Amino acid sequence: MTENEAPGGYVRLLVSLEREAEAEVEGPEDEWLWAEPLGSERFRVESTPFFAYGLSHGDVVRGREDGETARFSDVERKSGHRTLRVALDLDLDVERPEIQRFLDDLLALGCTYEAMPPKIVALDVPPEVEVGEVVTRLQTQRRDGVLVWEWADPRPS
Q1: What superkingdom does the record give (predicted)?
Q2: Same domain, 36 and 11
């Protein structure tokens, strides 16, 4: 197994992050996502993106093999999942009990998440979860100064 492979046959898929040429934004130029190879240069996204827009868990995408690396090229079929991105207030981090309770509440609704400690959470909202309820809970936390959030992939299809 190489560094670009994981148990279960998943591979790392490199996604170039879109940036406006004139914008001087700091941050990564690429994001690695875990994906299941489907053959014919197709992959199923198996992680929730932290930085890429327009991608969600379960999406079937096309990618070009570039040596040992698969590079994302476009979305073939949306999964119905939505991706939201959360950034916590400067005084909070994902390890705090009140943040863990909030995330547990989202899990109870049927969402999943991946955390990039100390401040960033990538939230996966599956098709069977009522997205309005998730947004209401996020908006309450935003109003209370706990976090800010954005749609990273609002289109389920």
Answers
A1: Bacteria
A2: yes
Instruction: Order across the sheet with 120-125: list the strands.
Output: 112-116, 120-125, 82-88, 147-153
CA gap 119, 62 in Å, rounded: 31
Contact between 70 and 61 under an 8 Å Cβ cutoff? The reply is no
Q: Is the dihedral of CA 17, 107, 144, 97 positive or negative?
A: negative
Do both 91 and 50 map to the same domain? no
Helix (H) or strand (E) run with residue 87 in it: strand 82-88
Q: What is the pTM of this model?
A: 0.88
Indicate left, alpha or beta for 116 from its phi (over 0: left) and psi (-120 to 50: alpha). beta
Task: Please give the chain's pLDDT, 157 residues, in tens.
Answer: 456 656 678 999 999 997 665 556 676 789 999 999 999 999 999 999 999 999 999 999 999 887 778 999 999 999 999 999 999 999 999 999 999 999 999 999 999 999 999 999 999 999 999 999 999 999 999 999 999 999 999 888 8
Strands 11-16 and 69-77: parallel
d(CA 77, CA 105): 29
